[in-house]
Amino acid sequence: MTKSKYNIITQDDEVVVLQDLGPWTDHPTITNDIENVIEDLKDILNHRILRYVDSEGKITVAHYDQNYKFIGFN
Q: pLDDT for 8-27, tens place per residue?
């Protein structure tokens, strides 16, 4: 299975923001691949807030625990 395709559009001391790129016919959305996205980014997340612009243009927060395991969206 392919992984989602995204760019880091901004990051600071508190937050990392991603843009979901698609195309969704070839790549899963960040929402559908969030466990892999968190795993791929854990070295740069450093427990910061993870936000992303989803495939519908909405900003979503992906919550994860101290072990970088996904726990929910907000």
A: 999 999 999 999 998 989 99
The arithmetic mean of pLDDT across residues 52-68, rounded, is: 94
Q: Are 1 and 33 in contact (CB under 8 A)?
A: no
Contacts with 2 (C-beta within 8 Å, 6 or more apart), sequence order: 26, 27, 28
Helix (H, G, I), strand (E, B) or coil at 31: helix
Residues 6+ apart with CB under 8 A from 31: 20, 54, 55, 60, 73
CB 17 within 8 A of CB 8: yes
Task: For residue 57, give the DSSP letter.
Answer: S
Angle (CA) 24 17 25, round 5°: 0
